[in-house]
Amino acid sequence: MNLNKKTQYKLSELAESLDVTIKGDPDCIIEGVCTIQNGIEGRITFLMNPLYAKYLPNTSASCVILQQGDASFCATNALICRDPYYVYAKIAQYFGNAAILDQGVHSSAVVDDTAVVHPEARIGANCVIGKATKIGKNAVLGPGCIIGDGVEIGEATALHANVTIYHDVIIGQNCVIASGAIIGSDGFGIAKHKGIWHKVPQLGRVVIGDFVDIGANTCVDRGAIGDTVIENGVKLDNLIQVGHNVKIGENSASAAFSGISGSTEIGKNTLIGARVGIVGHISIADNVVLTAGTGVSNSVKEPGIYSSGMAGLMTNKEWRKNCARINRLAKLYSRVKTLEKEIAKLSEREE
Amino acid sequence: MNLNKKTQYKLSELAESLDVTIKGDPDCIIEGVCTIQNGIEGRITFLMNPLYAKYLPNTSASCVILQQGDASFCATNALICRDPYYVYAKIAQYFGNAAILDQGVHSSAVVDDTAVVHPEARIGANCVIGKATKIGKNAVLGPGCIIGDGVEIGEATALHANVTIYHDVIIGQNCVIASGAIIGSDGFGIAKHKGIWHKVPQLGRVVIGDFVDIGANTCVDRGAIGDTVIENGVKLDNLIQVGHNVKIGENSASAAFSGISGSTEIGKNTLIGARVGIVGHISIADNVVLTAGTGVSNSVKEPGIYSSGMAGLMTNKEWRKNCARINRLAKLYSRVKTLEKEIAKLSEREE
Amino acid sequence: MNLNKKTQYKLSELAESLDVTIKGDPDCIIEGVCTIQNGIEGRITFLMNPLYAKYLPNTSASCVILQQGDASFCATNALICRDPYYVYAKIAQYFGNAAILDQGVHSSAVVDDTAVVHPEARIGANCVIGKATKIGKNAVLGPGCIIGDGVEIGEATALHANVTIYHDVIIGQNCVIASGAIIGSDGFGIAKHKGIWHKVPQLGRVVIGDFVDIGANTCVDRGAIGDTVIENGVKLDNLIQVGHNVKIGENSASAAFSGISGSTEIGKNTLIGARVGIVGHISIADNVVLTAGTGVSNSVKEPGIYSSGMAGLMTNKEWRKNCARINRLAKLYSRVKTLEKEIAKLSEREE
Lengths: 351, 351, 351
Fold this sequence. Notes:
4 helices; homotrimer; 3 domains
């Protein structure tokens, strides 16, 4: 695919503008990436995780991106740097294969007359763009995206196919939003009256900063009153739920299936593991790490690594027994209390 | 946005037809909503949660919806009523900002000749409507909705953009279905034969009552034989899974990520917290509350609040230790048993 | 619906080519399916779960698919076989009601000139098909499917409405992919550099075998380097997350909400319960069963049934107490240790 794209580069071209030192042949031709354990001639790889260091001396890759300390074990060309994974990320961009849409608006797209689409934006087939919506320079909307009224999508932001953006959502620059993501859906506000639930209108917006990534089928609800806010540099994986009026601080990241309930504020630089659940109306401090599967029901005020929940894996048979043991803890406590009394009695008599 | 909509109302207009008493100036002009803590002149707010009562005397909002008991602490106009959150929900509708589609069928929509779309329905761009499907009066289909054959969508029901409705799904009146929701997908029925899984056809329907809300990217599977049923007034949040042949009773509500497995029946007025998992083929009584994260593996026959699962949040270090303690419970039990025997022996000797 | 389809069959027609014995009238007319407990004349049902055996003698169904051992309790016609649920699955196909698209490409679909669509494929309204993509014979794309560049979709594979397939995804024959599924989205690869997260390009593919089913709103990420692989006969339920470079072995099945993190390898014939979470970079042996809600943080090397996590359901009050007990386990252990020392001391004195 992507046949018009040059796919061969000299090592020196790839290294340009990166803070790296080339060891070996700067004219070596690189035409793709590979893993270090399955190295392929003509391709570039990286070494970051020490578990993979054993593959370094014998990899068939034509270049390894690595740290100074590993360079002497490398028998092929190397790019020496401080952050090999980051340098790999930059170089891998040369070999991307994603669709490149034509500039302009596809003839099948339905764009409201009052929408303002930058002439250097790319709007895919069957997109729908609402009233007074603005699409920035070099923004890309994959096919089938539906963008509501009054939306702003910043420069160089990319929406993959089939993304849905509700009205009045603001998205910054250089964001990537994956297919199936829903931004600006109503928060879950319901009010009971005479035994019946009534939907509470959700009148706020979603405001997303720059360099934010949002994964496939992730949902970000609009604010009830006021906005749901996702700050610059936040990275969200697939199938995440962000409730109304949540705020996620700069540069925080979350793995799949996490859920953040309404009005909760997440600090900067937090790391949220997969399937973490956070109740509403609390706050999580900066630099907090929540490990996978953790449930958070109170504010976390200090940086640190926090966990809750399940113990380790067991055979189902042992697990059933352990569940029974857990459920009998009340009895165990009272047995220990009884023992303590009896011991006290016996010891008294002794003296 | 929404520029054609009147956005200024007298307090008396907003109060009309609601069971409220106006305290203060009925001619006060209201042009939006705000929170009580961030009150804004010209806007209306509400007080429900006692935690926010401290903001009442000094809020800058021009009107607060509140209960009689709070009225004397309110320095501005007030709407006195029994259910402030419900009254707020009704009044907030005046300030909604969602897209208003034009009446009729958008020229880009693909509607089968045998479909019956009410002339006062609104069908958005790029919708697809199948054979013999009926769309009721004032129903709204946002752009990109795909509606299968033989579907019925009742009066005033709204589907947001990019909703998918499979064939033979029946949806009542005044429902709201959010983007990305999938209604009528096949249930997960597989039969093993000679070591290979075979898909079991799912021949039932989904039947949804009136005033049902379904959240973004929520999935409701069709019945295998017979129907999956969601009764009147049920409210489902985002990213929920409803299995085949599930029945959810009137006026029940569920937060995000809950999953209800096949053939389970949920009673009326139940509350299902986020990430609750319920196994198949059981029943949950009316008025049951299941707290967030709970796993339910047996029928619940009595109303009440039920829970299971994870204990509270700890530092990761303490949690690891506690997991180890839990995994060593078998040994603890036997240590206590040994102690009991020894004590018994000692006590015997004493006597 | 589906009015052109014959919906009446003789029992002998339905039994043709299946390994069954007809007991009773082979000319009995069958026009649909029913459950055994709600049997309907003219319809066929099956008996598999012994819990339902009590309904067999009195069911109103006109035929029951059952095992030899149950045949004598059946008062109506029967199809005797070894795998009643499998035979039911085969027969139920005659009564399917799903949309049958017209052969060929719908006029509203946008198909790139370089795509190759088999003339006997069926492409629904508003589909978008990318460059150099190949759609096989008898493949069906429901309305609104978006297929990227360089994709291959095999013979007789069906995509329901609104499926999104990214570029360079390979899908085999006879697969079924439900609405809202996203195949080939970017894996969650991010690299930190000077305190900022950077997206790592995801350059691999997704390669899916034959007879694979993928549920509604399930996400399968493309590989980072190399491919994400789903082997023949794998069955995935709704709302599942499959991370980059995961491999799922032949004939494994997973219930909803399970999540498999990056680079993990799942063996053949595994069964993954609902809401199971599996960390990255581990492997799960063939024939492993993971029960619902289990978290797996280390490789599982032996076949067997494994579990972790929550204990059984309790009233919320009892659960709160039990959580407190669990959180006080450290103290309980030290109390028992103290008791042991005291007992030892007392016993010593005795001797």
